[in-house]
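We modelled the chain as a single entity of 273 amino acids. Its sequence is:
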Amino acid sequence: MDMPTTQTRATADRPLDGQVAIVTGSTSGIGLGIARAFAAGGASVVINGIADQREIDRLCSECEGLGHSAVYDGANLMDPVQASGLVSNTLDRFGRVDILVNNAGIQHVSPIEEFPVDKWDAIIALNLSATFHTIRAALPGMKARGRGRIINVASAHALVASPFKSAYVAAKHGVLGLTKTVGLEAAREGVTCNAICPGYVWTPLVEKQIDDTAKARGISREEVIENVLLAAQPSKKFATVEELGALAVFLASDMGASINGTALSVDGGWVAQ
């Protein structure tokens, strides 16, 4: 295994050389885009999420080909013990965690009076509480080393609300509040904590949502994109996982040292309205 060393020097092309990164929810979509970007930036990457073994092996091989080591940890982040264990397992394997990206999340849409309690509990557990548990486990080591980067993938819904998404909006607002608090607490220890707040991002999940919505409403794909998904996004363009990956790399690099406790919107102007 290609173990990173503290002597490895970051370069402009590989600004994360020698660092170890955990990216939750990274077997697809935004998380995978960030994991790939970190690997290309020179980091060893711990991938976490749901996929079959063949896909896990493929993703690890792909990321390892870009950077140093790439390993998988199947921790169920809805379980506080497993969420903390994701960090402790990484410490056992690599000796440290330099970068923690909390990206895993789920969604459910329903009027609040009909919102299933189990869906509320699950969304809060994965989107918010898991973020607390992983940060709580990773922060002491970061403080002791005098450097660390925590990046929480929140949402435009950390800043504005939409109807029928009570649990998701509540969780993402909570993530942003947690981000600010951790940023303040760790600021003098060389650790930063920031939230990336995407609008709609082009992922396989969104592409499927387009087809499903078009079928359900009896309208075209173009109408779903323009009038449903991107109705609140002035650019009328989806963000890409590559854009989010590049931003995450910048925040994780030395150049991101003075960005702390803040929300960075990647939403085509959504929250500017």
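As a brief sanity check on the tokenised model: Strands lie at 20-23, 44-47, 70-72, 99-102, 148-153, 191-198, 263-266. The radius of gyration is 18 Å.
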